Amino acid sequence: MQTQTTLGQTFTSHRERRASVRRAANQVPVRVETSVLSEPFEGQVLDRSEGGLRLVVGRQISVGITLRVKPAHAGNRTVWVEVNVVYCLSWGDRWILGCQFLTPPPADALALLG
Questions:
Q1: pLDDT tier at 61 (50, 70, 90 boundaries)?
Q2: What is the C-alpha separation between 22 and 51, in angstroms, rounded?
Q3: Does residue 12 belong to any structural domain of this protein?
Q4: pLDDT reading at 2 higher than 90
């Protein structure tokens, strides 16, 4: 059993199932867009792997929704990274999103996400 502490909260998993190693991010602020919401919103990258991201956001997002994510401080030339929401867990007044990349992002875009 593995235990991970993030933002003062502990998450325990019985088995790591991912194909690539999860890398803790520096809680990179991100801008998030989706076609089902009219306004973009802010979030933070908690960690990332070659397969996806774990985000914390201020709203519930349904599993299966596609999001576009990029660092909040990034300029217009930075590419948006598309992810699919795999899980959404309540965490106080916030939500933890497990997201899978739709296509592998370029290395420079991945590096900007933590």
A1: very high
A2: 9
A3: no
A4: no
pTM: 0.79
Rounded distance between C-alpha atoms, residue 34 and residue 18, angstroms: 25
Could you tell me which residues are beta bridge partners of residue 101?
83
Distance of CA 95 to the CA centre of its chain: 11
In a domain, 5, yes or no: no
The residue with tokens 């990179």 is 28
Residue 74 is classified by DSSP as: -
Contacts of 12 (CB under 8 A, 6+ apart): 1, 2, 3, 4
DSSP 85: E
3-state helix, strand, coil in the chain (%, to 5): 5, 55, 40
State the CATH number of the domain containing residue 29. 2.40.10.220
| Count of structural domains within the chain | 1
Structural domain boundaries enclosing 33 = 21-112
Task: Tell me how far apart the alpha carbons of residues 45 and 28 are, in angstroms, rounded to a whole number.
Answer: 5
Amino acid 22: pLDDT: 54
